[in-house]
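Per reviewer request, we include the raw input and output of the structure prediction for the construct analysed in the revised manuscript.
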Amino acid sequence: MRTTVGIIGAGPAGLLLARLLHDAGIDSVVLESRDRAYVEQRQRAGILEQGTVDVLRAAGAGERMDREGLRHDGIELRFGGRRHRVDFPALTGGKSVMVYAQTEVCKDLIALRLKDGGPLLFEAEALAVEGAEGDRPRVRFRHQGAEEVLECDWVVGCDGFRGVARRAIPASVSRGFERTYPFGWLGILAEVPPSHDELVYARHDRGFALLSMRPPVARHHPSEEVASLPVRSFVSRLYLQVPAGTDAGSWSDEAIWDELERRFETDDWRLERGPITQKSVTPMRSYVHEPMRHGRLLLAGDAAHIVPPTGAKGLNLAVGDAVTLARALVHLRDTGSAGLLDTYSATCLRRVWQAERFSYDMTTLLHRAPDATPFDDRLQLARLERITASRAAETDLAEAYTGFPLV
């Protein structure tokens, strides 16, 4: 099998890159180790920056997002029983974000890929990347019980932190930067309308809490008389800071709702409860691999960098990588110059480190460390007070949240 660009991984980075290359007339093959159902069901990020929204629309993948996604023009910061709204459009010249889950982005891009007829092989496990330092790199993979080889001009690893692509870069040229936090997020999905129409980030002496949501899901009406009519089921997504290594099953539903009420508590607001349909614990860590290119192997998305979810940056960084790489490959095709490919790693890493910085700032601003002292608590409150009292500080948060320039 032969192609111009071999893409390992059908997550947002790989699927969007394939779409952008298709639109530019550059052929590619996407290899995904999991089956289609898994890719379309795995729960990940749900906040799209303004730039990500614009890219999906331009790529023809924005129709369902615009119909079903939830545009948000701000977030609420909550601390010390107080509420403060950050108005994104007023602070950024009109930018907003979209609540639209990564699973839905992947569904839309998969549908477009299959409609276009571009090769997308599910249950195709990449075994190794070979020859990255030469002119004809290749990917050995297993598909339908047989081992095959995909020969390429370029290989792009979008296969996550544990994938084969990053491991193909020699240790002698690799540097990894990592921070592991001593807490995680206990996340739940609940069949109840969100208690607020925008995301709420709460700092509390007992720990952080986040109120989020997912767009309403169409379900069949339970009544036989109107069984043919779909109804919209509201879904709330909420999170609690918990110690690292916590077992989600150790928290009862009642204990979760009670703790959420404590951390969100104000005099003029009430948390709505409902059936919890899913519980999980997400670890909190940061990781950056440098460089993001070795020869004709390039990394994108989680294969190159991971951020804690506090800043809502993971999916959006993957989109930035895909846009930057597609632009570089088109430039090579049109001009014969590899200049943009030569600077791909440095270009992406500037944006990556800004996202890491913002995610770290948000995490340390809102979470209470296990060894926090009263001095640390006062500093957190002072930082929050600064954001609520200074338009410059508030603008810095709003600009970072709605997104750094993609290129």
